UniProtKB/TrEMBL annotation:
Belongs to the acetyltransferase family. RimJ subfamily. The keyword Phosphoprotein does not apply. This is N-acetyltransferase. GO terms for molecular function: acyltransferase activity, transferring groups other than amino-acyl groups. It comes from the Bacteria. Keywords: Acyltransferase, Transferase. InterPro entries: Acyl_CoA_acyltransferase (IPR016181), GNAT_dom (IPR000182), N-acetyltransferase (IPR051531). The lineage of its organism: Bacteria, Bacillati, Actinomycetota, Actinomycetes, Propionibacteriales. Residues 15-175, 197-367 form the N-acetyltransferase domain. PANTHER family: [RIBOSOMAL PROTEIN US5]-ALANINE N-ACETYLTRANSFERASE (PTHR43792:SF8), GNAT FAMILY, PUTATIVE (AFU_ORTHOLOGUE AFUA_3G00765)-RELATED-RELATED (PTHR43792).
Amino acid sequence: MRFPEDVPVLTDDVVTLRAHTEADIDPAYVMCQDPEMQRWTTIPVPYRRENAVAFLTELVPNGWRDGGMWAWAIEYDGRYAGTVDLRDGEGRVGEVGFAVGPDVRGAGVMTRALHLVVRYAFDVLGWDRVIWRAFAGNWASRRVAWKAGFRGLVVVPGGGKARNVRHDEWIATIGREDTLEPQGDWWKATVLEGDGLRLRPFRPEDAERIVEACNDERTQHWLAGLPSPYTLQDAQTFMDGRMEPQATGEGVSWAIADLATDELLGCVSVFGMTRRLDPTVGEIGYWMHPAARGRKVMSTAVRMVVDHAFTPVADGGLGRRRLVLFAADGNSASAHVAEVNGFTRFGTERSAAARRDGSYVDHHGFDLLAAERT
């Protein structure tokens, strides 16, 4: 193909994909100074203007000419916003890569661009499948791929490489006959406020309070699976781990914080939402910082989460039909939270709750139906 004459313009009337021009060099250079761009891509670091010049005046044009890579500039609101490309299209299968500037992230620009190039790959290039890759932990890229319908995600340990360092890699694909729509749910920890509490996503500054809560003797007793002692690294691992269940639709967790000070008071979660036999159910779990006990904090937080869980998905909730909650035998405080929120005790799982000494106690089950809250 000739460059730029033969580069097709793709548009959905909001986002336009076009041939790169020399006018894109400076905004591309600025974009590549972004720490997130440098963290998650293989661009040179430090990134110099001559790197942008080489990419846009040599690599991109040569890719179109020899058919090794088809790269478009993403134009949004009349200005350069990033780049998306298709490559390695042998055997009717190829890969997609993309990057957008920080000023347009969250506006749906990349999802629109991805839809356009995937359709081009299928309808014009005749591909049967498109592959997406990203370093594990690049949640923004994974969410874009999810919104565009990529599926079958796998983790390849050490599968990616950037600047001579190996990284775990996520890989997902979409086929010609697949719908370009999200598969399953991707939950968000929607901020909920009321009665002196704020339920919000966890933040790095919560780590020390998490350590205090999870080293508490009472917390350690009832949550026997917690590391002991519980370290700052354990807290960081816990917070990092909240994204995976949200991305798979399995669950969502909130930090319970004081509305006035935003100080962490505990955690409340809804999980088990992808059960094969009944995906309308969710289970509630929680723990509390010892300084927050005796203030009805957990009873209030659970009430807020129950209301959110029973709210239809179309209205921003979790769309649950039934919620369950379990309390180990002897944990009267946990059972009280269930009872004051209208849960009904439905039975006992015998010797189901593990203790740190290797013994087991009964688990008492409570449930609540959405129909009972109307």
